[in-house]
Design a protein that fits this description.
about 350 residues; alpha+beta; Trna Endonuclease, Chain: A, domain 1; 3 domains; five-stranded mixed beta sheet; three-stranded antiparallel beta sheet; 11 helices
Length: about 350
Amino acid sequence: MSALSAAERVLREEGSAMKCREICRLALDRKYWQSNGKTPWATMGAQLYSHIRTRGAAARFVQQGPETFALNGMPARSPKGSAPRKPKLEGQKKLSFTQAAEKILSERTKKEPMHYREITQIALSLGLLDTKGQTPEATMYAQILTEIRRYRARGEQPRFVQHGRGLVSLSAWMGHGLTFDIEQHNKKVRGRLLQGLIKMKAEEFEHFISELLAKIGFEELKVTQFSGDRGIDVRGTLAVGESIRLKMAVQVKKWATRNVRSPDVRDVRGSLGAHERGLIITTSNFGKGAREEATRADAVPIALMNGEQLVVLMVQHEVMVRRQSHDILEIEEETPSV
């Protein structure tokens, strides 16, 4: 018997809406269905949700609440042994797959790893995702793994931790272990990199930024002279592929503590030449006013890069830093079914 047929039989016998875990437990206990997976309730829940989403009004099942299902046409009742449920609110804010995973892990577990299929099933049942894909579980796992790789490439601690066999947890839960120790080391290195930038002489820092911009795709770079540049320190062209070329005027601010303010952003905007876009790079940060001014609707947008983002860029391109790798053995990850 398939998972859907087993769920239908259980719901007919019980005559009430039920939590997916309870439907799955009864289906397994009564030998209506068999599963070799470690999270059969997640598999069943995903199939129930997919059936409802694709069949619409013609589906055999309806969702009456988070992780709660009933047969289509069955009177709406609270699951056995639970308090009356408030109606599901319309207009639930949709999240990205990784945002939904972080929310579920932080709110619905006791700091224990959860299988990506179960995370997906809960996210779908809560209406957190807006997806028309046929394999949301595979998408969820792929996006989590992609984010982990992207964060590691930048030398940062990923939000998520892999535990093998499709299990995932949050790195915020860690307080010890190899991964935690590595992140603490990398955090110190990033701090030392930033302090090294702050100690540079002004002219040296401007040339350093020019060299870094060259590594990320800028061409025709020129460090301007101190006089007559109206505050612009570097000019160049950002080349994206063969057809996109953007003229950029860059101002650098080697500040230790003072944040960039809105007047600073306006000064850069006023210094732009014809068809130029602006970029401010600082070793400190940007105040709220500066961020609002940079994205003001009726003005040319100014891109902003703070000290933390600058260091991340250096790590990505291995500027003033060397990446070391070591072989760490892990159980092979479960391959998502598609």
